[in-house]
Amino acid sequence: MAAFLWVVSLAGTGQQVNYLENLYDFIENTDVFELNQEEGRAWFLPEKKLSLNGDWKFFWSDTPEGIPTDFYRENFNDKKWSVIPVPSNWEMEGYGDKLFRNVTSPFKPNPPFVPREYNPTGAYRKTFTLPDAWKGDQVFLRLEKVASASFVWVNGQEVGYNEGAQEPAEYNITPYLKPGKNLIAVHVVKYSDGYYLEGQDYWRLAGIFDDVWVYATPSARLFDWFAVTDLDASYTDATLQLQMDVKKYTTDAPSSYRVKAQVLDAGQKQVAALESELFTLEEPGRKQLHLSEQIRNPKKWTSETPDLYTLRMQLLTADGTVYDEAHTRIGFNKTEIIGSVFYLNGVPLKVNAQNSHMQHPEWGHRMKEEVIRKDFEILKQFNFNAVRTSHYPPVHRYLELADEYGLFVIDEAGVEAHATEYVSDMPEFTAMYRERVRQMVLRDRNHPSILFWSAGNESGEGFNIAEVIDEGRKYDPTRYWMYGGNAFAHPAEDIIGPRYPTPMELERQVGISPDSADLRPSFMDEYLSVAGNGGGGMDDYWRVIYAHPRLMGGAIWDFVSPGLTEKIRRTPDSSPFKTPAHLMGNARLVKGPSGNAVDLNGQDQWIEIYRQPNVEIESDQLTLTMQVYPRKLISSSGSFLTKGNYQLGLQQQGKDSLDFYLYTGKRHILRVPLPEEWENKWHHLSGVYDGKEMSVWIDGTQAGSLPVSGTIKNFPFPVNIGRNAEIHGQETNVYICDAIIDQVGIFTEAILPGSYPKEKAALWLDFETETEEGTFYSYGIGARTYGSIWPDRTVQPEMWQFKKSVQPLSVTLLDAEIGLIEVWNRNHFLDASHYRTRWFLEADGEILQEGEIRLPVAPPEPSTV
């Protein structure tokens, strides 16, 4: 605590703290998750702005200590540094390793502490020229998304600090600037105490992966606004309530201002004007104003009718001069819960959603506009009307386009503590939970596409979830809250689950509920997993959903398959069997004791051996042999060569011992001590089984033996080098094998150390060469093949069933003789005549009659035509 007080006291006086010398007082201190930042606000950038997207100088290290301690200084020589594009995840640019995890973290969790031995860190440097026209303005640096913790310097001076991969950080950098050329330096650490709230089920990637801006405003500015569009009892007319914050930054003489706002329709015709009284800003700080105006019968925003209006705002001086201005788009709608039913604009709503990560096979978590548009067009074409942004707020352009396309958004706070759900009951994390939801709501609350909020995902059931919802309601009292927990319901949420019920369970537990039961509306934030060949039962679910007003619908898990594009890299097997063997992850060939060897750093790198018959071993003799160069992380796991966790393998245990194991009716383990000088030296390992005895040989000397007999039993796991395929999957929290390996051999006979004849080997890898054989979508060390569409946005077959199950018009032939049909318009707001409808009468696949018909059928009840 003393270190924290010292840091904050210096920061408050503008003195320099020396971030890097006190780095762990920041990244392992739950009391410090932001420093010297602007408050959260509605997203807007003025005309005076510079994009800092593009090439930045970059230096990467596997620990923070590997970064040059003076890299942020103006006179630092970065000529030998690499260049990296911003925005990007550095793993997608060849730095560090792409790790997919579901529940666990990539290291053994111990909040608030982070691993010291491996914590990837990037140092960024970028220069820009300050425009002359900005003289006298306030200048700000805005980083939209940085994973996970970041320190910022301008011209060698400390500016601020941030934790939170999915929330923006904005700094007033005016005091640090000079005319002409200026330097921005950013130090990004992948793992911090904030990372314990970032345990989402996806690729764990780092870096500056969203836009970076520098912009200028006057000394008093339109800082924030909140537009509430309340509809009357008939949902016809609206009251626009506009809350506006004006912020002054300087201590100059008091000045008087007024604010003015206009609402314009799609044709830029004014439909409302609002103006405040004159007010005076005397001291630096914020002034909040409240304006209100009645608007007659505005067009209503829904997913079916995404009608938008432009809100233009101006800050005027006393003489009417425009001092600052801003604009945004708004929509008129209103959500309510009446009884146990969720309503939009007075209509009970059904929500057919997909869960969607921000994900691309080439760019990782960087989202470009053309990708978002493609995703939205697919969703609309396949009759989805909503997206749950799992499990963090999206890039701001995502919400702007959702407003435009007409997609409801369940906007989710970036809090998931799946590996350590107990932090939801830790007061030390409360402020961090609150800050993340506050940033989300303040940025996003003006978007009409946001249907309701989510308090996060799988972050435990403790009191901090209620804290999140309480904080969010402060800044948006007009919308409701759900929480993506694994319990049936959380006491603090307005909209309950459950998750993944069967259709029968959904109907019995929620649809048909007694009056004394919990009557909150139900939205299944996850209810149908399309992992592998999943995705069945859509008709059954929606029969139940349509039958019960309390059931709002649900979100399928999930939309975009998370595969990342990787090269297929094969290394030859010199045995007679030519077994396909592939380098996985960032495994690479390096110089070994004789020729090349394979370098595995423990971070999801291994050699995958194809399961062809020669390595599906069932014999009463065995030899495993290899050359190994163990390094500092080897004691975490050390899976040198394995075929599952039972059949056979050579596996290091801790720092002191090595296991040779095999299975002949039961698992036999021969554990031997390791030599004292084990790490950072080459060694020869050999495990031998002759049908009577197991023995281990290290550097030509027998280290131990064990009487064993019987035939080795084959198990359905592949041979892996550097990984155990049975236990090292998406829940791995160890460094699987940190070693350089060479001359790997498997023989189905007992061969003592000496000469190993390749022609008798079942497998022999000397890692001399690799060849590229195209590309594939990698799901990492064990992720499931989620997704309703493939990573390249190709639609998967189940999407056609999803489209059919919830098609907006359902037509049933009642009487062919008189041409009587029943039309069920499942829309909420659009008449069926909105569609051009063609009909066909078929018999045995032959069209007998056809034509076009107009269907003037209003939603939502069936009608006969």
Description of the molecule:
The chain has 865 residues and is mostly beta strands. The protein is built from nine helices and 55 strands. Strands 36, 37, 39, 44, 45, 46, 48 and 49 form an eight-stranded antiparallel β-sheet that branches. It has a seven-stranded antiparallel β-sheet with strand order 1-10-9-12-6-3-4, with no helix packed on it. A seven-stranded parallel β-sheet has the order 31-30-29-28-27-33-32. β45 (693-698) and β46 (701-707) form a beta hairpin. α3 runs parallel beside α4 (396-405), α5 runs parallel beside α6 and α7 (503-511) packs parallel to α8 (538-547). The longest helix has 15 residues, at 430-444. It is globular and about 90 Å long.
List the helices and strands and how they pair.
Blueprint: H1 2-12, H2 23-27, E1 34-35, E2 49-51, E3 54-61, E4 82-86, E5 99-101, E6 121-130, E7 138-143, E8 146-147, E9 149-154, E10 157-163, E11 169-172, E12 180-189, E13 202-204, E14 207-208, E15 212-217, E16 220-231, E17 238-248, E18 255-264, E19 270-275, E20 279-281, E21 285-295, E22 309-317, E23 322-330, E24 335-338, E25 341-344, E26 347-348, E27 351-355, H3 369-381, E28 386-388, H4 396-405, E29 408-412, H5 430-444, E30 450-457, H6 463-475, E31 481-484, H7 503-511, E32 522-524, H8 538-547, E33 551-556, E34 564-570, E35 581-584, E36 588-591, E37 596-601, E38 606-609, E39 622-630, E40 639-643, E41 648-653, E42 657-663, E43 667-673, E44 683-689, E45 693-698, E46 701-707, E47 719-721, E48 738-747, E49 763-765, E50 771-778, H9 798-805, E51 809-815, E52 820-825, E53 837-843, E54 846-853, E55 862-864
